[in-house]
Amino acid sequence: MNLVLHYGLLGSLEAALIALAVGFVVFSVWWQVCRRTGLSHGHAIGWACLVAVVIAAGIDSWKLFYLGMVRLESPLYARLALASIHDPDQLGTRVVLEMLGAVSGVGLGWWWFISRKQPADDSDAA
User: What is the pLDDT, as a whole number, of residue 77?
Assistant: First the structure.
């Protein structure tokens, strides 16, 4: 996505809200898939968390990993690496908040779909 986010903590919070929405949508898709194939709630939650974190925080996580692992020995390489990042000062905060937002979106989706009225199964009632 090519969204223009603010800088600083406000931009990190905006990214977290986007990740929350991504987590909710991804969980709703996995909920339908797992319900049709007979898989448990845990499968839907686990796969949705994994996919939502990769979608929402994947690029920023990769850039954070790249900055930590690659030897930026010349000022030119350091400048090129930092130029590709939207807000290098808040990169770590943004990654953490995006991951929390994606997982929270999955949790919100789980709560939303579980709280719907389920058909009662009275076959075991004694």
Answer: 80
| HEC sequence for 61-84 | HHHHHHHHHCCCCCHHHHHHHHHC
CA distance 101 to 118: 27
Choice between 2 and 59, residue whose per-residue pLDDT is larger: 59
pLDDT of residue 67: 84
Burial class (CB in 10 A: 0-12, 13-18, 19+), 29: middle
Range 60-72 burial, b when 16+ CB lie within 10 A, else e:
bbebbeebeeeee
- pTM beyond 0.70: yes
Find, among 85, 86, 93, the residue nearest to 66 by Cα.
85
Please give the structure tokens belonging to residue 25.
Answer: 């949508």
Q: Give the pLDDT confidence score for residue 115 in this predicted structure.
A: 83
Q: What tokens does 119 get?
A: 């058909």
For residues 17 and 64, what is the distance between their CA atoms, to the nearest angstrom? 20
Could you tell me where the DSSP H helices lie in 70-125? 75-83, 91-114
The sign of the dihedral angle between the CA atoms of 96, 10, 101, 24 is: negative
